[in-house]
Amino acid sequence: MTNEGTRQGVFARWSEAARHRFPDREIIVRANGQVAYLQISHRRQLMTLGAAVAFGAWALFASVSYVVFDRQLADKNAEIEQAVTAYRTLKHSLTDAETKFVDIARNLEERNTQLISMQDQNSALKRNLSAIETVLDSVVAQRTRIAGERQSLDTRNVILEARLKQMQVAQAEVLGRLGQRTLGEIADVERVVAMTGLDADTMLNRSGTLRIGQGGPFIPALGGKDFDGLVEPANFTAAILDAHIDRLEGLQRLLRVLPLTMPAESYTLSSGYGTRRDPVNGAAAMHYGVDLSGNSGQPITATAPGKVIFSERMGFYGKMVEIDHGMGVTTRYGHLKDIAVEEGQIVAAGEKIGSMGSTGRSTGVHVHYEIRLDGQPVNPMKFLKAGRYVLKAQQ
């Protein structure tokens, strides 16, 4: 037998078994007094059974598939949740990475800027180095040239030092001669001041000429001695000579303001300074000035420059003029016939201040002449003697 014959035999047996299991059936249906017959053949039964089996199989398949699909869906949801969680984690990581990337980019940019700045600085340093090398080359060249000139300068320095020593010796000799001459002139002027009875240092201090608080080398005291040879010429310096010249100039200014002349051109000394017999009552008395007799109306002049501080009648002095010469020195001119100056007026030495007369307590025409130091009378004849010495020295 062939395979086809075998398949036909099997199909015939199955068909026979199906007819036996599912014979043709007839169903009677009564409704509303009527009877109806419904005939169901075995073919239709098989078809219905097949449909039912197919539907059951489909339902079973669908149920199984639903369960499987639901489980798969739950698994997929779990996977999605995991994926979402992983995505979020990845997103956070990505955000952190982006932040780090931005920081790294910023750092790189800053470093790039620094590198550019360093490159610029490096370029500037290279230019400076090049300039320095140029300068160094120039310096080396100059140093070589200076080294060559130095020998010439050393020779010149030796010559200049020799000349300088000669000049120093000559200067010392000049300073010595000037110093000795200055000391001699100082001695002469101090001798004149000493004749008046005044102290030279005190008067210079009052005039602001004397330097206070100075030091320096020993200088021999001056006053009425021969100073030639007391200071060796080699010991004089410019500072010492300057100090001597300052003192000499101060003393000369002092002489110009001291009253060293008499107020009348021609006179007779009728009464000196000190104790005498009073010309009015004959009693012993103290005379604080000198009386110079002359002609009525004879000009009376200031014996030194100064400022008039009194110019009117004053008791026994009669008409009197008083002049302030500074440094505490004042002069008085009494018994004047008339007065030619006013109080506050500045007068020069030899300027007329009035005329000789006999006003006040007087026995005849004369001028009463006083010199006062700090308000205390001093002997005018000492000043006259000093003035005559100066006049004789000038001649």
Structure description:
This protein is an alpha+beta fold and 395 residues long. Among the domains are: 175-257, no CATH class; 268-394, Glucose Permease (Domain IIA). 55% of the residues lie in helices and 20% in strands. The protein has 5 helices and 14 strands. The chain has helices spanning 3-21, 42-196, 200-207, 238-257, 380-394; strands spanning 25-31, 34-40, 268-271, 274-277, 284-287, 290-293, 299-301, 306-313, 319-326, 329-339, 346-347, 352-356, 366-373, 376-378. Strands 3, 6, 7, 8, 9, 10, 11, 12, 13 and 14 form a 10-stranded antiparallel beta sheet that branches. The chain is rod-shaped. The model is unreliable at 210-231 (pLDDT under 50).
* Residues in helix, %: 40-55%
CATH topology of one domain: Glucose Permease (Domain IIA)
CATH architecture of one domain: Distorted Sandwich
Q: Compute the number of helices.
A: 5
SSE topology string: HEEHHHEEEEEEEEEEEEH
Q: Tell me the name of the CATH homologous superfamily of one domain.
A: Glucose Permease (Domain IIA)
Mean pLDDT: 78
Global structural class? alpha+beta
CATH level 1 name of one domain = Mainly Beta
In terms of per-residue confidence, which ranges show pLDDT below 50 for 5 or more consecutive residues? 210-231
Shape: rod-shaped
**CA gyration radius, whole angstroms:** 74 Å
Largest sheet: 10 strands, antiparallel
User: From the structure provided, what is the oligomeric state, counting identical versus distinct chains?
Assistant: single chain
Number of strands: 14
Strand content: 15-25%
Distance between the termini: 196 Å
